[in-house]
Structures are given as C-alpha cells and as structure tokens.
Amino acid sequence: MRRITVFQLGIDCRVISQMANAYQRRISDGLADIFKNLHRTSHEHGRVRILSKMEIACLMSQKITSALPCSGGFCQHQQAGVGEPVPNISSQQDSDTLKRVEEQINILSGILEQGRHHLRFPGRLEQRYLEFRNQRFLEIDQKIIIAGLLFYLGFTWSDFYLGGDNAGLIFACRLLITISMFALLWWIPRSRFATHMMTIAASGIFIAGLSVIFFIQLIPDALKYAYHLGLIPIQVFTLVALRLSYRSMLIVSVSLLSCYVMMLLISDAPELSAELGAIVDIFMPLFVLFWLLLIGMGAYLAYAIESSARSDYMKNRLLALEAERLQYLTRRLHLLSTTDSLTGIANRRYLEECLASEWRRCLRAQRPLALIMIDIDNFKDYNDRYGHQQGDRCLYDIARNMASFCQRPGDLCARYGGEEFIIILPDTALGEAAYMAEKIRESIVALGIRHEASEFSVATISAGVASMIPTAENSSDDLLRIADRMLYQAKDQGRNSVVAA
Fold this sequence. Notes:
- This protein is an alpha+beta fold.
- It is built from 17 helices and seven strands.
- The protein has helices spanning 6-9, 13-38, 53-67, 91-114, 123-154, 156-162, 167-187, 197-218, 224-227, 231-241, 246-266, 274-338, 348-365, 379-386, 388-403, 430-447, 476-492; strands at residues 42-44, 47-49, 369-376, 412-417, 420-426, 461-468, 498-500.
- α3 packs parallel to α16.
C-alpha cells in the first residue's frame, strides 16, 4: 500500500502530536471513570448491584467513542462479522490500489513481450532483480565457491612437484589466498557488503587466476609450460560460478586472457631444445585459441542462462502480482457481498449467516444468544422533510453509532432492511442485552440529529430485545420473531423506548 507522509498531507506534526495527546488523555480519563464504577454500587429494589460485564462494555464503548475524533458524525467503528472489523476503505483508495497493481502487471508484460536483449531492466526493477540474484547467489553459489577453493588448494601437489626451489613460496601464496578467500566468504554475507557479493566473488576468481599466472613465472625451465594447463580449471570455474552474471563472467575471462598474453609477450622464454621449442611454438597459439573458444562458448551459455533467469524472475513476479490482484479482488468481492453499501456495516445476507453460525455454537455450548432489533422512529417523515440524501446521512450516522457498541468478538451490527437494524450478542443474557439497548437508545438521542417531524425534535430509535438458550426444538427464526414482537410493543408505547421479552 502506498505510504503518505504528513508532509504530503500538509499537516503540521506538532498539531498531530497535540491532537493525539488530547485524545489519549480523554480515553484515559474515560477508562478511569469506568474503573471507578467497578467499585461503585447502587441500591436497587433493596439489593446491592455491581456493574455487569455488559454494562462495563457499554461504558467503555461510550467513553472511547466520545474520545475518538469523528468528522461530521462519520465515526470509524465498524463490525463485519465474528470479531472482524469492516475495513474503512474509500472507493478512491480501492481504485488506487488496484490501479497500482495493474500498472505493474502491464509494465512487466510489456517487457516480456519486447524482450531485453541487453540484459537490463528499467529503473527500480533492475535493482530488485539484482537483490534477488544476490540472495540466490548467497544461498546456492556459495557452496560452489567453497568447492572451487578446495579444488584450488588441492593443486598443492603440483607446487612441490614442479616448483623446484620456489615450491615453498608458491605453496605459501596459494595457502594465503585460500585462507583469505574463506575468511571473506564467511564475513561478507554478514556485513554491509553482502549486496556486492557477486562483484566480490568475480574479483576473487580474478585474483586466483592471476596467482596461477604468477606461479608460472616461478616454475623453472620448461616445467612452467605444464603449469599453463592450470588456467583451464580457473576458466571453467569462472563460467560455472558467474553463470548468472554475463557481464562479470566476460570481464573476468577476458581480463585473465589479456594478462596471460601480456605475460607471454614480456617474459623471457627459457632455453629449450629445438624439438621442444617447435612443440611450444605450436602449443602456445593453439592454447590461446582454445581459451578464446572456451570464453566464446561460455559467454553464449552465460548470456542464455542470465536471460532465462531474468525471464523466470519476470514471470514469477507477474504471477505474484496476479495473485495479489486476485486476492485483492476476492477480498473486495467478499466485502461487497457482506457489507451494506450505504452504512458500511454488515448486510442482511451476512447477518443471516452469522446468526445461523452463532445459533449453532450457542446450541452446542448451551449459552444464551441475545438479539436487539432496532427501528428508526418516523424515518419516512424524516425523508419527506429533509430529502433522501440527508436521510442516507442519518442512516449512516446512526448505524456507525450502534456498531461502536459491538466491542466483543462475535458481536455484530447489521442493517436488516430499510431503517431496521439488528445486533447479535452471543453469550449475553436478557438483562445485559436490554441494558445495552438502552445505552444505544440514549446515545442516538445524544447525537442530536434534528428531526422536527418527531415529537422529540431529534432522531430516535425503538428497540426490541430477546434472548434465549438455543434448543433443538427452536430455531433462530423464533428469536427473530420475539425481538420483532418486542419492537412493535416499543412502537406502541410511544417510540424512543426499549422493550425486552
């Protein structure tokens, strides 16, 4: 998701800090009042009553809701299902997210169709590929380098067999290079130079090749020509270890060959017999030609391997983006199918699914399941007087206010149809549900939504409350019918009231 800084929004950081501190103090003060209520008792009907869990939840909801900022009544509390809040995502944000993913898909598809003959991606994509290639090199090719170093050290026998008086020096140089390479191989992946592992590996291979050219100069007489063959394993190892980097492989190979040719041109040839000299005169050009052919074949293979690796990376990246797009569209479709488009709370379809699920769960556990059915009083008159747009705004504000009371996992506030809403409260007895319904009624009145066609001058609600422990003989429809009957009784009592079964 794209990040937006406070500077991009044009908001002073100090103002945000002051607002956050103010809201934190308000929430803290509200919670302090709640915990004071835990120790407060009241005498009702001659008995001492301690606040119940549902009453505490309602108090917390009211305190926290009042502390949080709302813009024009658009509070941020929503409930989508069993313990899942509905994401408050605007249509513009949805479009931006989908557009970003589709733009990347189009860019990658275009690159695949055009082909990248010079083995380089544009901009940020090239950097991401190099990071991926370096990680792959650390995971796989590190073992190849270890094997190559052991093979390089294994040629110690040739140092003593051909080195003569310089055998000790050659062996010491070979051992020093091997130990240094092993130390770098252990340290670099753990350092800040890990991102340059491919370049460092290429440099190490070049140093190993230079060491062999240097050793040739130390071998006495005609024996040095046998040492020339030691450059072939170095070249083969270059092709294998640097196969994922066509440029690195080509640079190291050509550089080693150039150094070798320069060594032949500037070094003094040992005195040889006529027959052996003739063989050397034929052997050296053929050896250089063979090396050139090896470099050419290796360059072609490295180009093909890197091209294939880049293509595979692009395809895998495309698959990942397509999966992200599909996952996003799936979530979006689920949200659209379970959310009421006007109020942002759960719709009737999702309500019925959750009610059936909670009914079965409470049936197994033999726990009470409560239902609050709510209707906005005189809402038709409100629409006729203020218009349907203002009526939609009224529905939105009231729905968000009611949803803010659903604080527990499993609580659900949903639009049942028109101006009717239902709140599902698992594991809730009738008294606790009635208490919550009364608090919701009071909070709607406190919103102060003007309604001159009402006898109360503000928008109000009526609520019917029902609760039962599910049995095999009953169904969730029975609970709905009881709550609906209680709602009609609340209407008959003059509206703006709560009636519990």
